[in-house]
Amino acid sequence: MDAEHHEEDINKDNSHEQGGNTAKYIADSSVPGISKFLRMMGIDCACDCSYTDAYIIFIARSEDRIIITRSSKLHARLQSYENKKAKLERQLEKAKNTGDEEYIEIIQDELDEIKPLKYYWVESLGRENQILDVTGHFKIRYIPELLFSRCVKCNGKVRRVVNKNDIKDKVYELTLEKNDYFVQCEKCDNVYYGNEQGNAFQKKLWKSARDLCNRLSYEDTTSH
């Protein structure tokens, strides 16, 4: 079964209100290792060290992404939105009790302008602990067929290169000659080569990636 059909299947049994394999994420520069790992597993995780906090919030809202951060500055900013919303909700409740329809309408309009934000504050230290923290919280499972289905550089989806001569200007001549399996990012055109049926080095690389994903992804122990 191909990666696309697997994404449809896991959407049925692995959806999660605050995450899961099919949710979209955005990580800031405080946790770059998390974004690279999620991309390797085929998870949609945007990340760019040049993004400001304001732009991260903008993307999260416009693309319905969950923010992952360890930045105390960004965390405080996200909490301020929650506090503002909670304050307005209390004011709205009081206004309803007094029956002030005009005031109710004003507060409701303000509340409607505050678009919801989903985020996760990473408390743990160390790359692997942080990854375990995130995959455990969002119940992100390892799906073998989705391994390396996204570009670890830009998060774009990759596709199989049918005719390797189409990418001859993007790889070394010797690499083109000695390999038959290539994929290319649909977004940045970056080319990757080799798979688990390749040479000894490629097999070792894929095995290491599989082992890492198995070790650091979520496992539902209640189903055993």
TrEMBL record:
InterPro entries: Mut7-C_RNAse_dom
Coiled-coil region list: 71-105
Segments for region (Disordered): 1-23
Domain of life the protein comes from: Eukaryota
Residue spans of biased composition, Basic and acidic residues class: 1-16
Keywords tagged on the record: Coiled coil
This protein's name: Pomgnt2
Domain annotation Mut7-C RNAse: ranges: 24-198
